[in-house]
């Protein structure tokens, strides 16, 4: 069964930042500068965490993975145009 996750990161060095972006982009939807929406199985989540851990410097970089509710309702304000599948959007 798949679950929804928000992956956010702050990576100091540009080379690592590019690698984190490329790695995460293969697994989710890029919704803001350092934020991805991912729909993953438990095994895919474990693989994501393991792969990111190999890329980052744990003393300098910060990655957070937030589980999201199964039925999400998102408020989009401004110019957001990337909408994950299965997400209800409320524009204001």
Our Rg estimate from Cα atoms comes to: 14 Å
- What is the 3D form? globular
Strand order of the largest sheet: 2-3-1-4
The CATH topology is given as: Alpha-Beta Plaits
Extended strand count: 6
Characterize the quaternary organization of these chains: single chain
The overall average pLDDT, rounded, is 87
The main sheet comes to: 4 strands, antiparallel
- The CATH architecture can be given as 2-Layer Sandwich
Number of domains: 1
> Which band does the percent of strand residues land in?
35-45%
| Helical amount | 25-40%
Individual helix count: 2
The span between the termini is 32 Å
- Which stretches are poorly predicted, pLDDT < 50 over at least 5 residues? none
* CATH class (first level) name: Alpha Beta
String of helices and strands: EHEEHEEE
SS-based class: alpha+beta
Map the helices and strands:
Blueprint lengths: L2 E8 L3 H12 L3 E4 L2 E6 L1 H14 L6 E7 L4 E4 L11 E4 L1
Parallel strand pairs: 5-6
Antiparallel strand pairs: 1-3, 1-4, 2-3
Tell me what the structure shows.
A hairpin with a 2-residue loop joins strand 2 (29-32) and strand 3 (35-40). With 92 residues, this protein is an alpha+beta fold. The model has no long low-confidence stretch (mean pLDDT 87). It has a four-stranded antiparallel sheet. It has one domain: 2-Layer Sandwich (Alpha-Beta Plaits). Helices cover 28% and strands 36% of the residues.
At a glance:
This protein has 2 helices and 6 strands; from the N terminus they run βαββαβββ. It has 92 residues and is an alpha+beta fold. It has one domain: Alpha-Beta Plaits (2-Layer Sandwich), CATH 3.30.70.240.
């Amino acid at each position: 069964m798949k679950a929804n996750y928000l992956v956010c990161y702050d990576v100091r060095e540009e080379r690592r930042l590019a690698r984190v972006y490329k790695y995460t982009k293969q697994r989710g939807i890029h919704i803001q500068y350092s934020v991805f929406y991912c729909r993953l199985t438990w095994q895919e989540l474990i693989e994501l965490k393991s792969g990111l851990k190999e890329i980052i410097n744990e003393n300098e970089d910060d990655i957070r993975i937030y589980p999201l509710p199964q039925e999400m309702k998102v408020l989009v304000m401004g110019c957001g145009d990337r909408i994950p599948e299965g997400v209800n959007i409320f524009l204001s």
